[in-house]
Design goal:
Belongs to the bacterial solute-binding protein ModA family. This protein has two domains: about 5-105 and about 210-245, Periplasmic binding protein-like II (D-Maltodextrin-Binding Protein, domain 2), CATH 3.40.190.10; about 110-205, Periplasmic binding protein-like II (D-Maltodextrin-Binding Protein, domain 2), CATH 3.40.190. The strands form two sheets. The protein has a five-stranded mixed β-sheet with strand order 2-1-3-10-4. About 40% of the residues lie in helices and about 25% in strands. Helix 3 links the parallel strand 1 (about 30-40) and strand 2 (about 60-65). The chain is built from ten helices and ten strands. Helix 3 (about 40-55) packs antiparallel against helix 10. It is an alpha/beta fold.
């Protein structure tokens, strides 16, 4: 959750004036903008949300990070969301006309993460078929799992993961906590984990690229603020943040 609220100012006004009304006025002056974003966007959208709130001091930006499929399900069930950014187009398409004119803002590919130093000497995807290794992947219902399944299909390699997680961040956590020898995540997640993991690539990963779309929600009563957030992501500021976090640009 990322907040730029006037609550503190409201409290100060109450103390000085001895009236509750000032606090209520401050609350009413703040717009809450709910952004739903794929787990793999956590670092980038944290920075972008902070930048948005810095410019729009009257907006309280709240970002809900989870697996793309879970986010869409929450919106389908009536969650109060203004903006949605998923890790693939297929998941976004589930929202149909509820997502207003989705636009691609970044792309991402997969990579293998291991314990620091790669102690099991994993050299590529086929290494993960070793029955002595414990591998975790994303569940096929979420974009990183769909991409992993496509890589398996393309290569004919059949992985036997010890678990299938609901988000890419959960896969990273299993590896960094020592519960698994390896996991398949996005390049950006490997970079975000820093020295907590080692990354191992495979040529097959380059053939499966996830495109990330973003859209406002048609039912949002905060369309102007939502569109300004989308514009920030699609603009130079968003592109710079995403690039620094390892995302590739949207195709021209």
């Amino acid at each position: 959750m990322f907040r730029r609220s006037l609550a503190a100012l409201g409290v100060a006004a109450v103390v000085s004036a001895g009236a509750v009304g000032c606090s209520n006025d401050a609350d009413e002056a703040t717009t809450v903008l709910n952004v739903y974003a794929a787990a793999s966007l956590k670092k980038a959208f944290t920075e972008i949300a902070d930048e948005y709130a810095r410019v729009h001091e009257d907006v309280d930006v709240r970002v809900n990070f989870a697996g793309s499929s879970a986010l869409v399900t929450q919106i389908e069930q009536g969650a109060d969301a203004d903006v949605i950014a998923t890790a693939d187009e297929k998941t976004m398409a589930r929202l149909g006309a509820t997502a207003a004119d989705p636009e691609i803002f970044a792309t991402n590919t997969l990579v293998i993460v291991t314990e620091p130093g790669n102690p099991e000497n994993i050299v590529g995807l086929r290494s993960l078929t070793n029955p002595e290794l414990s591998t975790v992947v994303c569940a096929v219902e979420v974009p990183c799992g769909t991409a992993t399944a496509q890589v398996e299909k393309n290569t004919g390699i059949d992985l036997k993961p010890v678990s299938e997680e609901s988000s890419v961040s959960a896969v990273v956590a299993k590896v960094t906590s020592g519960q698994a020898d390896a996991g398949i995540v996005y390049v950006t997640d490997a970079r975000g984990a820093g020295d907590k993991v080692s990354a191992v690539t495979d040529p097959a990963f380059a053939e499966v690229v996830n495109a990330y779309p973003i859209a406002t929600l048609t039912g949002s009563p905060r369309q102007q603020d939502a569109q300004m957030f989308v514009d920030l992501v699609l603009g130079e500021t968003g592109a710079a943040v995403l690039r620094a976090d390892g995302f590739s640009p949207a195709p021209a």
